[in-house]
Design brief:
By secondary structure, the protein is an alpha+beta fold. The chain is built from two helices and three strands; from the N terminus they run E-E-E-H-H.
């Protein structure tokens, strides 16, 4: 069996293994790192990443609202004299963006629930350990 590195990322190596003439991809191997964050730091990083993504999504929504307002006009008079087809196309692109943002919000919500569940388990286990002392 021979191993060849096919991809190297900052935190993992993926090997292509040759086993009996067939090449298969091995499981990622994460090299040891002396400076791995503890669980508390990881949860803080997760919460910070959620907050940053939420801020990015709010900027996208704001930009889309401005784009819609510019297209429709302040008096809803369509200053660009858009055709029905152009309005429908514009509506479709706005709808697609909003669908994407809603899906991203759902993913962030699940990420937040997972982080909170880990926090709950940490506190529950610590309280249980303190009670049994």
């Amino acid at each position: 069996m021979t191993k060849n590195v096919i991809a190297k990322y900052p935190s993992e190596y993926i090997y292509l293994e040759k086993i009996g003439g067939d090449e298969t991809m091995s499981m990622p191997q994460i090299p040891e790192n002396k400076h791995r964050p503890n669980l508390h730091d990881t949860i803080i990083d997760l919460l910070e990443s959620i907050a940053l993504e939420e801020m990015s999504l709010s900027h996208l929504l704001s930009a889309e609202a401005e784009r819609i307002q510019a297209f429709v006009g302040k008096n809803q008079d369509f200053p660009t004299s858009s055709s029905t087809n152009e309005i429908l196309c514009f509506n479709k692109t706005s709808s697609n963006l909003l669908d994407t943002i809603v899906m991203k919000e759902w993913i962030l919500y699940k990420k937040l629930l997972a982080a909170l569940e880990v926090l709950h388990k940490i506190h529950f286990c610590r309280d249980k350990y303190d009670e049994n002392g």
